[in-house]
Design brief:
By secondary structure, the chain is mainly alpha-helical. It has two domains: about 90 residues, DNA polymerase, domain 1 (Orthogonal Bundle); about 170 residues, hpI Integrase, Chain A (Orthogonal Bundle), CATH 1.10.443. It is built from twelve helices and three strands. Strands 1-2-3 form a three-stranded antiparallel beta sheet. Strand 2 and strand 3 form a beta hairpin. Helix 1 packs antiparallel against helix 2, helix 6 crosses helix 10 and helix 11 crosses helix 12. The radius of gyration is 25 Å and the shape is globular. The protein starts with 6 loop residues before the first helix and ends with a helix.
Length: about 325
């Protein structure tokens, strides 16, 4: 794709990516998203509009957004792309590559906030119970599912865990979260039991290098990949009879919702999840309240039906 871009576009893109890596310490995955978003925009500017990226204005940006919507790009991706483009032009103006920021007056698009989905306790137990064997791989998989839910971990946090991060006696795990912020996550007895058995019986059979520190290992004795965990969860969900899309972050949503549903303090859940702002955690209170209301209405309706049935039987 870079070969199809003009020299100024390639140079500006590389300068911006170098700055992001040096100043903001972003993950390779995030950097790749920035790069792909800008490449797509540059391609539109140069190929569809026949313009230089230095002559962009808000009208061109609106046409680009219209093209994205017409092409079926989901709203969340459009919000991210606009944010990336606005930051890029702000960088160009600040570093003197442009005399002024041509998108300075463009408002930030607000992302539509959808309530996160979550699993019921029955669904969760079905997924975890889908791993019912005693092989080293089975012990590992059960420990992964138990810990993902019990500690409310992100997938990216789970796969970088080392043995030294785990404290079974205290039932806590040291986690490196977003922005390389460290926190302690807690887990219960069920996860403790699964982890203990994996460490005693499963991991020793998988490990091939004595100095390997990764907590969860693959068949070759190396660190288990994020993709492998995604496949594991999907397989267990299908085995449990769940047709809807089940992904690792859904267990984190479930953890937060169940915690608040059980009466946990919002600030405690925020700390356990590693959210920088309590606003990120508050959305789960809406999920919890929605679920409570749903259960109340179901109970009310069932009671009403029961009373109506008894009344009907009495009249007959």
């Amino acid at each position: 794709m870079d070969d199809l871009l003009s020299l100024p576009s390639r140079q500006a893109l590389q300068a911006y990516l170098r700055w992001l890596q040096a100043e903001r310490n972003l993950s390779p995955y995030t950097l790749r998203n920035y790069q792909n978003d800008l490449r797509s925009f540059f391609g539109y500017v140069e190929e569809q509009e026949g313009r230089d990226i230095r002559t962009v204005d808000r009208h061109l940006l609106r046409r680009y957004l219209a093209a994205l919507r017409a092409g079926g790009t989901v709203p969340g991706s459009i919000v991210r792309k606009v944010s990336t483009i606005r930051c890029f032009y702000r960088f160009l103006a600040r570093e003197g590559h442009l005399e002024r920021n041509p998108l300075a007056g463009v408002d930030k698009i607000k992302k539509e906030r959808r309530l996160p989905s979550f699993l019921t306790s029955k669904q969760l137990l079905g997924i975890i119970g889908a791993v019912d064997g005693d092989s080293p791989k089975d012990l590992r998989d059960r420990a992964i599912l138990e810990l993902l839910y019990a500690a409310g971990l992100r997938l990216s946090e789970l796969v970088v865990l080392d043995i030294g991060d785990l404290d079974l006696r205290q039932r806590e795990v040291r986690v490196l979260g977003k922005g390389k912020k460290e926190r302690l996550a807690l887990f219960g007895r069920s996860a403790e039991a699964a982890l203990d058995r994996y460490l005693r019986e499963g991991r020793p059979a998988l490990v091939q290098r004595p100095r390997e520190r990764a907590l969860f290992l693959n068949r070759q004795g190396g660190r288990l990949s994020a993709r492998a965990v995604q496949i594991l969860l999907r397989r267990c969900a299908l085995k449990a009879g769940l047709d809807e899309r089940v992904f690792p972050h859904l267990l984190r949503h479930t953890f937060a919702t169940h915690m608040l549903d059980g009466g946990a303090d919002l600030r405690v859940v925020q700390e356990l999840l590693g959210h920088a702002s309590v606003a990120s955690t508050q959305i789960y209170t809406h999920v919890s309240e929605t679920e409570k209301r749903k259960r109340y209405l179901e109970a009310f309706y069932n009671q009403w039906r029961s009373q109506r049935r008894r009344r009907s039987q009495g009249e007959s």
